[in-house]
Amino acid sequence: GGGVSEGVVVNLFAFDTDVCGSLLRTREGDAISVTGALTPKVWTDKQGISKPALDMVAHRILRMGDGPHFD
Prior knowledge:
Structural class: mainly beta
Strand order of the largest sheet: 1-3-2
Strand content: over 45%
Helix content: 10-25%
Largest sheet: 3 strands, mixed
Number of helices: 1
Low-confidence stretches: none
Order of helices and strands: EHEE
Oligomer: single chain
């Protein structure tokens, strides 16, 4: 405890036309909820330090403010 926590990079992929359209309408700072397959990964920065990351294939996305439906 007490240390500064870094964020985790999430690489989000979508193949379904409706999900892709919803992602394209998303802007920086928008809150979203995504369901899909999640795979943990590790990447190495320019200094050679390993960092955690997640790859996610989005099956459904809910953009907050779009109403109570899934795209």
